[in-house]
Amino acid sequence: MVTLTINGVEVTVEDGTTVLEAARFLGFPIPTLCHMEGLSPYGACRLCVVEIGQEPKSRLVTSCTYRAEEGLIVRTASSQVMKARMMILELLLASCPQSKVIQDLASKFQVRQQRFRQEHEDCILCGLCVRMCEEQMMAKAIGFRGRGEKRSIGTPFDIRSEQCRLCGGCMYVCPACQLRCTYAEPDKAICGGCANIHPPCYIKEQFDDMMCYMDPCVACEIIKK
Fold this sequence. Notes:
With 225 residues, the protein is an alpha+beta fold. It has helices spanning 19-26, 79-95, 100-108, 128-136, 169-173, 218-224, and strands at residues 2-6, 9-13, 49-52, 59-62, 73-75, 143-145, 152-154.
C-alpha cells in the first residue's frame, strides 16, 4: 500500500494504482480521451495531465500511466494543468473539429479559440481502436503505421485483414466516430453550441492556484435553479 496526497486529501491505495485511478476514487474528475476501462493505458491524448511535486520542481505527468508513489503530492486542477489541457484541446480541435466529444470537452474547459491550422482529419491517433481490436476482440486486425507526420491507423498495405470480424468495436470507442458535430459554420473550429455559459469558479480560500474540480459544479447548479 502507498499513501499520496491529491488536492490536499490524503489517500492510501494499493501498489500499482495509477494517479488517475486514485484521483477518481476520491471523486476528482480528470478528463481523458485515450483512456478506457478494460484497455491498457497509453497516454497519447495527454488530457489527463496532473502536476506532481512541489514548486519550483513540480512537473506535469500523464495520470493514466503514472503509478502512485509513497508521499507523492498531486494537483489535478492547478493553473499549469489547466493551461496545458486547454492547449491540448486547441490542438485536438485543429486536427478533428467535427468530433462532438472534443467539442464538448472544449466547451467544458472554456476553450473559446483555436489558433492552429485547421486540418479536418478523421483521426487523432489516440489508439483506442487499436487496443480495443487487440485486447478485447483478440483480432489485431488494425494497427499503427508509419512515423511522425505519416503515422496512421489501418491494415498493412491497406488490404482488408482476414482477422477483422466487422464487429464495429473500433468505431464504438473512437472519439472521432462516436458523434459528429454538425455545426452550421464548418470553417470555424469551435461552435460553442453545447457550451456551459457559467465559467468555473475559483476556490482560492481553500486551494491556492486551483480551479474548481467539482463535476458538476455545485455553485453553477444552484445558479441555474
